[in-house]
Design brief:
The complex is a heterooctamer, with 2 copies of chain A (99 residues), 2 copies of chain C (183 residues), 2 copies of chain E (294 residues) and 2 copies of chain G (386 residues). Chain A has helices spanning 52-56, 82-86; strands at 3-5, 8-10, 25-26, 38-42, 62-64, 70-72, 92-96. Chain A is an alpha+beta fold and 99 residues long. Chain A has a domain at 30-96: Alpha-Beta Plaits. In chain A, the strands form 3 sheets. Chain A has a two-stranded antiparallel sheet. In chain A, strands 4-7 form a two-stranded antiparallel ribbon. Chain A is elongated. Chain A starts with a strand and ends with a strand. Chain C is α/β, with parallel strands linked by helices. Chain C has helices at residues 14-27, 77-80, 118-124, 136-147, 152-162, 167-180; strands at residues 2-9, 31-36, 46-54, 69-72, 92-96, 112-116. Chain C has a 6-stranded mixed β-sheet with strand order 2-3-1-4-5-6, covered by helices on one side. In chain C, helix 1 packs across helix 4. Chain C starts with a strand and ends with a helix. Chain E starts with 21 loop residues before the first helix and ends with a helix. In chain E, helix 7 links the parallel strand 6 and strand 7 (199-204). In chain E, helix 1 (22-34) crosses helix 7. Chain E is globular, with a radius of gyration of 18 Å. Chain G is of the alpha/beta class. Helices cover 40% and strands 19% of the residues of chain G. In chain G, helix 10 links the parallel strand 11 (263-267) and strand 12 (289-294). The chains are: A alpha+beta (99), C alpha/beta (183), E alpha/beta (294), G alpha/beta (386). The interface between G and H is large, with 86 and 86 residues. Bound molecules: thiamine diphosphate (TPP) (2 copies) and iron/sulfur cluster (4 copies).
Chain lengths: 99, 99, 183, 183, 294, 294, 386, 386
Amino acid sequence: MIKKIGKKIIFEKADDLPPNAMSLGTTEFNETGSWRNERPVVDKDKCIACGICWKFCPDMSIKEDAQGKAEIDYVFCKGCGICAAECPVKAIKMIEEEK
Amino acid sequence: MIKKIGKKIIFEKADDLPPNAMSLGTTEFNETGSWRNERPVVDKDKCIACGICWKFCPDMSIKEDAQGKAEIDYVFCKGCGICAAECPVKAIKMIEEEK
Amino acid sequence: MLEIRVHGRGGQGGVIASKILAYAFAMEGKYVQAFPEFGVERRGAPVTAFIRVSEGKINIRSKIYEPQHLIVLEPTLLGAIDITEGLKDGGFIVINTKKRPDELNLKVKNSKIATVDATGIALKYRLGSSASPIVNTAILGGFAKATGFVKIESIVEAIKKEVPIKPEENAQAAIEAYNSTLM
Amino acid sequence: MLEIRVHGRGGQGGVIASKILAYAFAMEGKYVQAFPEFGVERRGAPVTAFIRVSEGKINIRSKIYEPQHLIVLEPTLLGAIDITEGLKDGGFIVINTKKRPDELNLKVKNSKIATVDATGIALKYRLGSSASPIVNTAILGGFAKATGFVKIESIVEAIKKEVPIKPEENAQAAIEAYNSTLM
Amino acid sequence: MKYSIPEKELINPGHLACQGCGGALAMRIVLKTLGENTILTIPACCWSVIDGPFPYSAVKVPLFHTAFETAAITAAGIKAGTKKVEKEYIHSVAWAGDGGTFDIGLQALSGAAERNDDIFYFVYDNEAYMNTGIQRSSATPKGAWTTTTPTTFPKLESKKDLDAIVAAHNVPYQATVSVSYPEDFTKKLEKAVKKRGFKFFHILAPCPPGWKTNPEDTIKLGRMAVESGIFPLYEIENGENYTINMPSPKKELKPVNEYLLKQGRFRHLKEKDIELIQEIINKRWEKLKRLAGV
Amino acid sequence: MKYSIPEKELINPGHLACQGCGGALAMRIVLKTLGENTILTIPACCWSVIDGPFPYSAVKVPLFHTAFETAAITAAGIKAGTKKVEKEYIHSVAWAGDGGTFDIGLQALSGAAERNDDIFYFVYDNEAYMNTGIQRSSATPKGAWTTTTPTTFPKLESKKDLDAIVAAHNVPYQATVSVSYPEDFTKKLEKAVKKRGFKFFHILAPCPPGWKTNPEDTIKLGRMAVESGIFPLYEIENGENYTINMPSPKKELKPVNEYLLKQGRFRHLKEKDIELIQEIINKRWEKLKRLAGV
Amino acid sequence: MSEQKVIMGNHALSYGAVTSRVQVVAAYPITPQTQVVELLSEMCADGTLDAEFIKVESEHSAMAASIGASAAGARAFTATSSQGLALMHEMLHWAVGARLPIVMGNINRSMAPPWTIWSEQTDSLSQRDTGWLQIYASSNQEVYDSVLIAYKVAENKKVSLPVMIVLDAFFLSHTSENVNLIDQKDADRYLKPYNPEFKLDIKNPHTFGGLTTADWYMELRYKIQKAMEDSIDVIKEAHKEFKDLFGREYGLVETYKCEDADTILVAIATAASTAKEVIDELRKEGKKVGLLRIRFFRPFPFDDVKKNLKNSKKVIVLDRNLSPGNGGIVYQEVKSALYNEPVKPKVYGYIAGLGGRDITVDTIKKLFEDAQKSEPAEVKWMEVKI
Amino acid sequence: MSEQKVIMGNHALSYGAVTSRVQVVAAYPITPQTQVVELLSEMCADGTLDAEFIKVESEHSAMAASIGASAAGARAFTATSSQGLALMHEMLHWAVGARLPIVMGNINRSMAPPWTIWSEQTDSLSQRDTGWLQIYASSNQEVYDSVLIAYKVAENKKVSLPVMIVLDAFFLSHTSENVNLIDQKDADRYLKPYNPEFKLDIKNPHTFGGLTTADWYMELRYKIQKAMEDSIDVIKEAHKEFKDLFGREYGLVETYKCEDADTILVAIATAASTAKEVIDELRKEGKKVGLLRIRFFRPFPFDDVKKNLKNSKKVIVLDRNLSPGNGGIVYQEVKSALYNEPVKPKVYGYIAGLGGRDITVDTIKKLFEDAQKSEPAEVKWMEVKI
Ligand SMILES: Cc1ncc(C[n+]2csc(CCOP(=O)(O)OP(=O)(O)O)c2C)c(N)n1
Ligand SMILES: Cc1ncc(C[n+]2csc(CCOP(=O)(O)OP(=O)(O)O)c2C)c(N)n1
Ligand code: SF4
Ligand code: SF4
Ligand code: SF4
Ligand code: SF4
């Protein structure tokens, strides 16, 4: 029997598997936020909602908040820093993750 | 033991063979004159020794005679007719092989 | 079991001839096999094909080493190769030539020789080009006549089914050959 | 047999650290094995490597499931993954951090914890870039000090032989780490 | 928030690309425009890892993982299959790295282009075999370090001119694009979606570990590549009609040295090496302008 | 007798080519100039039969028969080997048919060209897979019959522009040549022999059974191909410098219909098909002249 | 209703594909397979067959295209031989791992170098570890029928594996003989349209073949082996249904006068057909001999082989192939299959007929003679000139 | 004089190539082989190795280039893994038919799909019919030493065949351990420059591999088989000379406590190394167990296998591979080898460790346990989750 724990898929035995290794779930099981050394932090006051950070994020980790401003999805954000680098008004800062 | 009968190479047994199928003789064993339906015949009077037939023969079957004129090597000539077609003075005729 | 060998030159259609002939036999309810000599012959080089015909299923699947009958599409081959290699006694040899059988001087012991001018017939029906007429259908008429093994009607029907270009003319050529075969 | 596990992130040199350490042991006459966790980890993702050390030939060639000792190159990992999985009692854990062992609050039963500021030392010797300093050589000094299993001289020599870029500085970093390890 | 490219995401986060991966971003942009009537074929490349391990997947369209050398032909096979079994028109998409395209997959690509198979072919070009740890491909630029072109003997040969090779096949549509210019990219995709036959996209996709660059510089590097003319953006229709999109053919190219020196893989280059590279760029740029008739 | 090309023969008669084979003649011409310091690599093609069955061989230089798809790379391997073990400079020569070049061998060819491997590559182009009995290759011209492009559905696609593909690799020397112009052919060979790096020759080699032509017309057809501009003779150096040798760029091309209709493989073509083909030729000829700057 | 034709083995394959209503054909020419492709391309051109024909640039691509088409849910067909088969090798593994019911004809031809175009089974037998089902045919009728049977088996959800139909170069491929073609309507009753459990489906998007770690890869291989084992019954059913509809009977193996035989010849392909002549002759001489023709070499028909051989005293295996450094492949596998049986016949292995050397009635007789008077050995050669 | 290093198996291959003074390297990267190529390209770049390095565009070309170089008389080396090996397949046959003494490293990795990069021997074992000699190594020292031995054997005129050195992905390829490198001068005494009997030689021009009819093709295959058989003695000599010069001893097989064993485990590669631990443990428990490691799988060491197994009661074969539709490859071949012996042990076969699943001390113990209490079967799985 196939179990699901959150986004994780747990097989018990061969019979559970699709024979051709067909996918059954999404990579959202993989919380890549843990990869981060630095975290982007949005200064909402500065943000002009231009969408540039959203456009360039390779990890779909920028969302819109209620005000239409940028909001980071820390579950997945890998901390690459592209958003900070590309923000035209420097509304995003990268700060070191706590060690 | 490897025997040679004319240009033909006769093996007796596996030991005679080069292990990698290396050639030991030339295709001259193969008298391709037998393929001919028509034979080129040179009219030596017309031949101006321009060498054009020689140049175009795919079977190296045109030689020089004592006068420097074209001579056909009937052992190999396959009778394609190129020489006759290309001869600028029509010194070569194709005539049917006897049946 | 009938075992027949066909001789021709690369490009002449000897292999197709063998197939048509086999088909003709098959239409008469026989089991057949037709196959070429397994080579890489080029245009102009001598080629060979074979036919087996039997009342029952043919299990044997090796080559034919000792045919009983021969079909020769190209008279110039008679000088070039030994067409009678392995030939069994007592069969038929059908040859495309203008000559009469007795003019040929073939060294065979007990075979019956038949000749037919398949080239002339092919030219008449404009089969192939004049430089290389296609004689493979005509000669089958000769074979039918000489041997009596297969009906000319079967040959004609096989030709009509198997020959894509000018089937009618090819059939006519076979009939004409049938009618002009010399023995 | 010593069995050691190394934790780091893709790009930090944890696998090389394991190899240098193994080499250092080998120079002291030991038989060694050093190998990475066999994965496809990308830059940033957690990676693991292993070392076996023995007096005799090592025949066993399966992975290490229950290491006795740990080396942790990246303090942020302590939160991200369970570094103590399968850990045997009674070994050493050497961690790159500015903190003192007792500040770490690690849930381990009987392991001795040592810390060393490998990052600080790497930065000082300009190993790697300031954004991603290379801490793998420094921490080995800490390991030598904490465990006493291998001489710092062997570590230094192994570094000099194995590290192609800035071997001297890396060696110095290891020595400085050796001298500043806290337990 | 302003959305200058389609809002809809057809890939999921949690995928396994490195921090700042240009190749991941490229896929994100492409799927936005192609939409759900798309079937992907991916040969061995970083994306065979990025998409996630079984039983997970990052993309929300069907994806067939195929052998390294077969991207174009597998996509052509899929196209032929869908023609027979599906009622809807389907974009059959081959998505490969530069190694899978310029090298081991070139023959299949050329075959599909010659037959004008009705597929999309995308190469996300990170200029080396990244998935196996940064070895030279024929897309690796002259002078670059890789693990098989050590700094003692960096790559001698120029980058293979794949775009010219594809153009020689006279395919209906082809373009060079960059993750740093998503709007240009999207516009070209929209154009191509309407065409039938073979459509080819060459994407420059910066790769932080492979180029030895900082992840946050991915977009910047893509921009510098375009502006310096080392990777100009242009389209070709039917192998003949060239349109240069960027940089402006009227302006001078920005010098390439800044682009090169931002990357660890070029850091060993001497000044005269860089000059040589600059020369080659200038020459190619002139040629491109000639072809575009500007 | 007058010898306008080198007299020496490096192949033997008795070989197994058909009557009037252009491919056989091509080899004869090439070996005359390359001479005895030559090692041939031949993949599957008519020449694997022409050379003769074991234990015989038609050529008087070393010849290595190799797999169909590997001509260029096997020759590159041989070159690398001889570099290490031979004192003399050796011409390592890949000799392949169009199928082995345009299709299944293209990738190896492109790889060798990209690395600028120091070899000769000759394709004798008879415009189909002849050895296996006349199947379509990507070198088969538009409109031609082959056994896989029956007259009910003759080849749709144009001949792949391999010369442009090779040119995109910027190789030191490449040329188109014809067996009907042995002197031009020889001159180019002499030029190429002096170059180091990748040298490419594209030979049009008429094939009587494959083209359904009379054997005696082989040379004539080669000439008509050149004069009609369907196969112009030209050279390219470093992928850039084009020189047109024949026909004269100053004169009008001869119409192609005579060339086509002499061949059985085109006999099914309708007038408008021929017009279309003529148009394509004219366009390509204009393009070639543009590239050559004439 | 059925039509009788006289066709070569290659055309039997083509007609089999047509009768099976294949939807995508991707193939590349090679002697001795070309006629398969030529006829199919004609029939696609003139509309006889409603299929996409991809004229690929290599066999590697032929298999890759077939894989793509099959993954998209279409019925895919291809054919090749020797070098072409070898060039496909990576993709042969692929078709299996992807569990795609592709059917391919392979015309056996010996492997180069030196160049050769003649019959030998090393090309396909050396693919024995790729996971393809393999049928070795011994007549053109069997070739034709096997195409339909192959799809029937391959597409069965319990199997989902590709099938190779193997025929000897020239001895079948170029030999024309009587073949009864099945009426399309009847064929359609036997073989239903392909309706895959999984396919690339935009309405139900999934990824196929993603990176699989040590956690589950082994189980996927287990499932392939299981499918092979399950295919035995599926094949038997397919054969039974075929017989019921069309009257022709096939098995995993074919036996000929085995019941009371004390010496049994094991062979595959056309050599087994010729061997029947020998069996008949020897039987006439009063010798208790029989023939076991292995028709399905994969899955290896363990039960049939054991059952039919166990009561014999001597087994003679004829191998038209060579695994250098070991010996004949069928010999090896037959011995291995019998190994753990309580009572075992002596098993003799002979290699014969490589590179197109003819296997005649005489050749086969010699095997019986030699096995009478000698002991088995790892590698014995028949009719090699040494 | 020799230097000790701590190197991964991949580098052991590279160093082996350097010590063997290879002249042409043509290779293409693939996980888990890349380090072999990377180190060699570095050493070619900096002059440590005086060789031509051809950075080919595919593995198919890697083997073709090696073939060309070897045919020209140079010592050629390459390395690959799984998909790359499979892609070379046609050229593997080629190297054998052309009789070229190429040496290749293959890092075992399971075959896709699904994608996988982990250890399993199906990739190389499924090349068992191509005619390559195959060495399965179980330590990095053995990998390194085997490169020299491989050339020594391959280049012997009696052999003239290519050799594959196989090492498990990660378990050897990426595992660094103590390796003693041989001093170049000593190595040169062992391995002389390659001096081929035949080569592409402008001074003595010949054609190689021309079309060969049924007249003689079979005899050429016979010679390949003969070379395989002759290689047994050549290998033994090469091992002896190696031992005399460098002190390390190898055999076609390695035995461990076999003499008095009633149960013997047969395994290849690293699993056989781990098994020694198990043998030791079980011996301590008083069990008479032993290990037979097959080092050369081609030529198959019939005599050594028979000799060492014939006095045992039970043989357990561990297969990290699968031939779908048959079973474990080593199992099959061992049974086949023992078949005609007068007295035969029971032979058990188990499939374990596919796709990188770890084969631990526990795994191997379970084999012994299972074989104690059960009967053999065609296919048994160990540690598969069903
Ligand atoms: C036949 C074959 N050879 C080699 C490999 C190993 N391999 C997997 S991905 C890869 C590199 C891919 O490079 P590229 O196409 O440039 O994509 P990238 O990894 O850079 O995204 C290689 C060499 C393989 N999977 N198959
Ligand atoms: C891998 C592989 N596929 C197919 C073949 C069969 N084959 C041999 S020659 C040939 C055609 C060669 O065509 P081309 O290269 O144009 O040369 P030509 O025969 O026309 O001279 C083919 C398809 C082969 N030998 N190997
Ligand atoms: S740091 Fe990178 S991953 Fe995180 S939100 Fe910014 S762009 Fe996305
Ligand atoms: S780029 Fe900067 S300003 Fe624009 S939406 Fe993002 S955070 Fe806001
Ligand atoms: S190596 Fe490069 S291309 Fe591959 S995932 Fe990482 S950043 Fe992307
Ligand atoms: S088929 Fe054509 S190319 Fe081949 S040998 Fe005959 S004429 Fe020459």
